[in-house]
Amino acid sequence: MLKKFFLVSTLLLFFGATYAEPNPNYKGPTYDLSKIQPEFRIGFLGDEAAQDIIARNQCLPPYFEAAYGVPAKMFTFTDYAGTMESMLGGNIDYAWFGASGYAGMYLADPDAVVPVLTRMQPTGDTGYYSIMVTLKDSGINNLDDMKGKVLGFADPNSTSGYLIPSVELPDIYNINMAEYFKDTPFMGGHENGVLGVLNGDVDAAVTWVSGVGEWDEGYSSGNLRRMVEKGLLNMDDIKQIWSSKLIPNGPMVMRKAIPKEARDVMVGMKQWIHENDPKCSENIANGIVRAWVPVDHSFYEVVVKARKAKLEAKKKN
User: Average pLDDT of the chain?
Assistant: First the structure.
């Protein structure tokens, strides 16, 4: 059963149509999915407003329909857990997770989903960063200044918004999270975390960025860039006080039950979009990417180990 979601048939919110016509310009690889299932279900993490997710990705379903020969539907969720539960339950076919979200699903059921592809940064890296931001005039300039302050996390299943900082801060900086910070609330997503900083609800928040490109643009891609483009953030109002080590870019995953040939089409389709419809590719990516590249489970083994260790430690406590 699907939990915590808003169901939006393709473009229904905007044009009153149940389905969009397949993109007539698409000339990439195809696979007739109608022999297996009647539709293709696209899931999205709940890290920004549902209407913004649908608007930014409205170019995508017509390509799915052209590539797979079945109607495509988009589903948005109120949190990461809802997307993960739906993927594990076989109720959506495709979603883009952070590495921690994928790790959580793999640990729950290693046969449920398969990593298919991820993004490559303009520099050629296939990773990104968790950073901590605060108000420019907050007087907080580093981690030392955060002692006794409130740090906002994005979501319990977010890689950059929780897992990585919750591991690196104790391991590298010897910070006892429960004692060092006054509070560490979950903000309900990356966008809400940064808005919490701007509104004074938290002293700082962690979020994800490419770590390359111009600061005043919110880097080349990531949550800050997305917020700048939406008019929600002026980069002059915030500053960065911490950065993680490089994190493996999260995978776009598909149900393992879908044939490998169909999963391979996903890689070719995204590459075709990138080359022939760069604006759509940029919308999907939350910014500028150099390419979409195939990945497999081995790329995420270090994150799976980190999440497993955190779960085991929690059980002991």
Answer: 91
**C-alpha 271 chain-centroid distance:** 19
Span 62-88, pLDDT tens digits = 999 999 999 999 999 988 999 999 999
The pLDDT-based confidence of 213 (bands split at 50, 70, 90) is very high
238 closest CA partner among 277, 208, 194? 194
Q: Which residues pair with 248 in a beta bridge?
A: 127
CA distance 57 to 119: 16
- pLDDT tens for each residue of 129-148: 999 999 999 999 999 999 99
Fold classified for 127-247: D-Maltodextrin-Binding Protein; domain 2 (3.40.190)
Half-sphere exposure of 72 (CA within 13 A, CB side): 26
CATH T-level fold of 5-122+249-311: D-Maltodextrin-Binding Protein; domain 2 (3.40.190)
Per-residue pLDDT, 21: 75
**pTM, to two decimals:** 0.86
Pair type for strands 72-77 and 40-44? parallel
| Distance, first Cα to last Cα, the chain | 32
Distances (CA, A) of 266 to 60, 148, 253: 12, 47, 10
